[in-house]
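> tool_call: predict_assembly(chains=six)
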Amino acid sequence: MAERRRADARRNLDALLEAAKAVFATSGVDAPAKEITDRAGVGVGTLYRHFPQRSDLVIAVLEREIDACAAAGGPLSADNPPEVALTRWIQRYTDLVATKAGLASALQSGDAAHQALREHFYERMSPALDSLIGAAKIRPDISAADILHAVALLSHPVPGEGPDYGRHLVAVFVDGLRNGTG
Amino acid sequence: MAERRRADARRNLDALLEAAKAVFATSGVDAPAKEITDRAGVGVGTLYRHFPQRSDLVIAVLEREIDACAAAGGPLSADNPPEVALTRWIQRYTDLVATKAGLASALQSGDAAHQALREHFYERMSPALDSLIGAAKIRPDISAADILHAVALLSHPVPGEGPDYGRHLVAVFVDGLRNGTG
Amino acid sequence: MAERRRADARRNLDALLEAAKAVFATSGVDAPAKEITDRAGVGVGTLYRHFPQRSDLVIAVLEREIDACAAAGGPLSADNPPEVALTRWIQRYTDLVATKAGLASALQSGDAAHQALREHFYERMSPALDSLIGAAKIRPDISAADILHAVALLSHPVPGEGPDYGRHLVAVFVDGLRNGTG
Amino acid sequence: MAERRRADARRNLDALLEAAKAVFATSGVDAPAKEITDRAGVGVGTLYRHFPQRSDLVIAVLEREIDACAAAGGPLSADNPPEVALTRWIQRYTDLVATKAGLASALQSGDAAHQALREHFYERMSPALDSLIGAAKIRPDISAADILHAVALLSHPVPGEGPDYGRHLVAVFVDGLRNGTG
DNA sequence: CATGAATGAGGTTTCATTCAT
DNA sequence: CATGAATGAAACCTCATTCAT
């Protein structure tokens, strides 16, 4: 009985995460709560029970992908020369930020509702990027946090353009990272 | 006589512009209309009389500075080698976008309410930057619009940081412009 | 000098009446005051000086047309057989009501502000219609006032339809007038 | 349990319908939403939840009576000769429109907010009247919709007169229906 | 633990009316 | 007498959030 309850709760939670993922992609992270709960087929109360703050939901939705991206740093630096590893990882990171509509703006917005997300995000990403930076040679006046921040900004989706546009701008920035050392 | 009345109207209009400038700086360009009118000491109707669309107000607040920035391109390219002129102008542009809180986000938001601002902005800035690009040698896969867009993104104010932070990131991007494809 | 002032005032008043006539026809009697004054090329204050209450303006506008319509009865009955004169006059009256969007409601509302209009309306129209009715043969249980009222209602403009629609319905009613006598 | 909640909701909904009915009768169908919700003792949000469009509320208020009137056509044509059935039904329809304040004006107003009401209304009434028209002989240039519209107009309540006045005018119109073109 | 109806603050926009010039 | 800028009440609609069931 208690198990059944837990199973139901789990199912609701999964439905919410799935729905939120889809809605965030189309309407951004500030989409109305109702849009998410309707799609998940649950009441709004259920959303608020599981995710009292909006960031809680955003974090939960993106957690796996954030973790996967952070974790990709190890294999990349094991299999590639440092510069290549860094470039590849930034590309992966760019794709993450560019394709998860709303992530970029949530990271950059001053909104207190996204504070927890920002903290979580940088906590995971900074160590991963730091070890890549340590191996590769980049200009010393730029930190991991700087890169994370800059790439997130440059990856902001642009209405008329596809995700390649952000990658293009990021490539210029990455070139600049090497350039300054010369 | 009619002059006197116009003086009153002018005073209100100035108060509105002043208030909007201040409010935009603290609360962004999407701040509630009431916040602006209260600060200006006028009724909401007065705001809507002068600025029916939100963009109209944003444009009015920033117009002089936008125009001044665009106009600075000529003297800069007359007095400096092309590369220096370009760099200096981008610095000036960075300062504009970075210090006018809300401008950066208004440019990047897909919000229809800011469409007129975006058009006005790019109409002024693109020609100015285009002639600087033509003289300086930069990678050919980047247009004036790309630079305007990227710098606006990188200049997004960051809560904990001063305006130098944006300049720092922009400097890296500008270094990347000089590279071919690395 | 005083004459010049009076001439100017008269011109403004005429412009207001002309503008109100046009605006009432398209936007109804509750159209924004600004719409009328803009069309007249005067300030709103001028409107309020001449017509402190909205009904004052409605009355002034409609009085002219009512007088013109009532006056048309004489010539029509002089130049046509009685039945034709009646039909033609009702057509003219139909056109009056159909194009003045607020006349019917002003006549029908219990509003004391429109009392003067109602009195004037029936004072002018009833004799005109009465002499036309007297010559033509219609059922005796219907008075001039009944016809004026019914036609005004049937002439209410219908969004999707042209003025012919009202004329069509009125034609049926007019047929009913003859029919009842048989 | 869920039943209890639904009972509350039902009570609110009934209160809204009751309040709307009363308010429509005194202030017309365009009365402010707040006037209705205050009278019902609920928040505005509750009104918008149940009736997103103004027409939805108007329809809900009048639905039963509209349906009852439409349904009366069958029995009438079963029990009476065609002409009598048509006349009786139009009388019944006249009473409906004349006594439900606001219905007549909502039907006639061009307001987009009442579009759905008009559609609902004509969807129900047209078939009922059509079958009565088919049996009775009336002039062919008049459709069911024309009659519904004309009668609604002629039934507009007149301050100084009772409901018989509208019936009188409608009777003339109905007589006109039997004529060809006179 | 889930539900979803209810709330009501909050934002926008429109206009009738006043009144200083 | 004319002007039209200013006012601010009023209406609309939307959601985030609560809480009784």
